[in-house]
Amino acid sequence: MSSWDVIRRFDEARVTLAHYRWTVLAAMGDFLDAGAIVAGAVSTIYWVSTFHLTSLLLGIIAAFSPNAFAAFVGAIIAGPLGDKYGRKTIYMYDLLAYFVGTVIMRPPLII
């Protein structure tokens, strides 16, 4: 079987509910990364003007930002857990924790 046959089989495969779930999970990962990056970038404008930060100090803060620190801690903790329980399971609980945190931090609705 040539590589073109394999590609053709993937192209002609029936789309199932699992494919949609995988797509949503992949999109959520990109959403989380983008949200963290944008939040950090937007907040630096306020940090510089409010605290009169120099470029060097801003760079140091960015290097030890919550996003970078969370990636470090996540790799130390979630890496071995992912090896033990599976990446899909750990990722699902990660998204659940992010959702709960978002709900807790959400401002109250004004009606």
Short description:
This protein has 111 residues and is mainly α.
N-to-C terminal Cα separation, in Å? 63 Å
Q: How much strand?
A: under 5%
How many helical elements? 5
Mean pLDDT: 80
Unreliable stretches covering 5 or more consecutive residues: none
Q: Helicity level, as a percent range?
A: over 70%
Sketch the major β-sheet. Answer: none
| Shape descriptor | elongated
- Alpha-carbon Rg, integer: 20 Å
Give your account of this protein's structure:
The protein has one domain. The protein contains five helices and no strands. The chain has helices spanning 3-11, 17-51, 55-63, 66-85, 87-105.
Labels describing this entry:
111 residues, mainly alpha, 5 helices, 83% helix, elongated
Secondary-structure topology with pairs:
Layout: H1 3-11, H2 17-51, H3 55-63, H4 66-85, H5 87-105
Helix pairs in contact: 4-5
